[in-house]
Design brief:
Distance between the termini: 62 Å
Largest sheet: none
Radius of gyration: 27 Å
Oligomer: single chain
Low-confidence stretches: 11-20, 22-27
Helix content: 55-70%
Length: about 90
């Protein structure tokens, strides 16, 4: 588990040297790079947001098609069950 301390058998917390270190893509800003970091973070969010939006739209469309198909199947089952009683 990233970012969480591991417990030893005795329930005591590990020492500082045993704590896992973060290997994520954290961005640290120096005093002169604050604006540049904000801009790059904005670009990163935009780059990640566009594919996510496209994927959500595709999934929504597919869900609509599946719902229509399900309604058709339900109608067929209802028709078959009423035909079998006649």
């Amino acid at each position: 588990m990233l970012g969480r301390r591991r417990r030893t058998r005795g329930g005591a917390s590990p020492s500082k040297s045993q704590e896992p270190t973060s290997t994520g893509a954290a961005v640290t800003a120096d005093a002169g790079q604050g604006a540049a970091t904000g801009a790059s973070q904005s670009q990163l969010v935009t780059r990640l947001d566009e594919p996510a939006t496209t994927r959500l739209q595709r999934m929504s469309h597919r869900l609509s098609l599946l719902e229509q198909h399900m309604e058709t199947l339900e109608a067929d089952v209802a028709k078959a069950s009423t035909d079998s009683y006649e």
